[in-house]
Design goal:
By secondary structure, the chain is mainly α. It is built from 13 helices and 9 strands. It has a 3-stranded antiparallel sheet, with no helix packed on it. It has a two-stranded antiparallel ribbon with strand order 1-2. Strands 3-4 form a two-stranded antiparallel ribbon. The radius of gyration is 20 Å and the shape is globular. The chain binds glycine.
Length: 393
């Protein structure tokens, strides 16, 4: 059944048709498993036994599967996915009240945010507003940042002696705050997002454009205490997904504020990755570009799909050589869609992409599928499709 609100699959390139067809078949199998269980399961990755790991609403990755089903609905125009997208989104509604970590932006914006965009509903805007209020409880006015992780009761964080750790990933939570200002008319959300982005811009980057994973602040004085890593190879190394979060996050900040310094940072970080001497020929980064065993280190498809999605957006802005960003994103999508990274139908736990890395220092999720690699791949496919249909007109 074709939904009139959504784009048709006619007149799109064979590349998009084929990959959307694959996503429909592969995610369709995941949906069949979930529906047969009678529960609202939320697939994340494969565990060590090769079984699908399903998460609860509080996991930072709980919004990605519902979000992928929204993109599936949008990309196929098939209205049979609408009630499923709604059901999987509703299943994580309790996350709107989470105040014990910063990832509520990822969770709620990818699920309810896409729901609001594609099937406007007061219940969705209420969830977005409530989630934004929850996120602002983590704003620390002296440091002018949103604290990422709690330290008390969190052994990894307390062992490092951190007080107010902020991770670069947090840039991805700001979109929720920008949306909340649009939904409520209250500019406080916008100002907190800008304050966080500005402090991150000032403290989290190195002169070559790469970023630290963690910056820890003194809650009282707001001073920087440490610049370190949690998921990278070393404090001074280039943890690839962190670079992707920075590129994407600062692109969103530019979209919402039109302040060119944000786009300049996104581009500088991207150029650093693009020109990195250890970037492989297929452009899919190693999990950390300074990992000691390169070239025999795992790749991270989630980094590549997130960067591809951001580059499609950047290519729409008035920047020199705007078209080159689309070309690079297209090359990333070619690699990700090749048999080297795209799973075979029915394999890979019914996830789309293989070869991502959760966290090597935590010995967790190494060279596995991850639902956020799939989410940003779906988003990138949608952005590519939109761009190409505009050019055709
Ligand atoms: N936000 C956690 C990660 O990027 O792995």
């Amino acid at each position: 059944m074709m939904c009139m609100a959504c784009s048709s699959t006619k007149s799109v390139s064979p590349f998009i048709q084929e990959n959307v067809g694959f996503a429909k078949a592969q995610l369709g199998l995941a949906i069949d498993t979930i529906e047969a269980s009678g529960k609202c399961l939320n697939p994340v990755t494969l565990n060590e036994k090769g079984e699908v790991y399903y998460c609860g609403y509080g996991d930072w990755r709980s919004g990605f599967f519902p979000g992928s089903i929204w993109y599936l609905y949008e990309l196929t125009g098939d209205s049979t996915y609408l009630p499923l997208a709604k059901k999987y989104t509703e299943a994580i509604r309790k996350a709107e009240n989470l105040t014990w970590h910063h990832d509520i932006g990822f969770i709620i914006n990818c699920s309810f945010g896409n729901g609001l965009r594609l099937s406007p509903d007061t219940a969705y805007s209420n969830a977005m507003k409530q989630a934004a209020r929850s996120l602002t409880t983590r704003f620390r006015p002296n440091a002018k940042v949103i604290q990422s992780w709690d330290v008390k009761g969190n052994s990894w964080q307390s062992k490092r002696g951190w007080e107010c750790p902020v991770i670069i990933d947090n840039m991805m939570n700001l979109e929720l705050l920008f949306e909340a200002t649009k939904l409520t008319g209250d500019s406080a959300f916008y100002h907190m997002a800008v304050a966080h982005a500005d402090r991150t811009l000032a403290e989290q980057f190195r002169p070559d454009g790469s970023c630290y994973h963690v910056v820890d602040y003194d809650i009282e004085t707001g001073a920087v205490r440490y610049k370190q890593t949690a998921q990278g190879y070393a404090d001074e190394s280039v943890w690839s997904r962190g670079q992707a979060w920075a590129i994407y996050g600062f692109t969103v900040c530019y979209r919402e504020t039109k302040d060119p310094k944000y786009l300049a940072q996104a581009l500088k970080t991207f150029e650093m990755m693009k020109n990195h001497p250890r970037l492989p020929k297929d452009l899919i980064p190693y999990w950390d570009m300074d990992a000691p065993g390169i070239p025999n280190e795992p790749r991270d498809a989630s980094t590549a799909s997130c960067i591809a999605s951001a580059l499609y957006e950047i290519s729409t802005y008035d920047v020199p050589h705007a078209g080159s960003y689309k070309k690079y994103a297209d090359r990333l999508m070619q690699s990700l869609s090749s048999p080297d990274y795209r799973a075979k139908l029915g394999e890979n736990g019914r996830f789309l992409l293989m070869h991502s890395v959760g966290s090597i220092p935590h010995n967790n999720e190494i060279d596995v599928p991850l639902n956020y690699a799939d989410y940003y791949y779906m988003e990138a496919l949608k952005r590519k499709k939109d761009l190409e249909s505009k050019t055709k007109k």
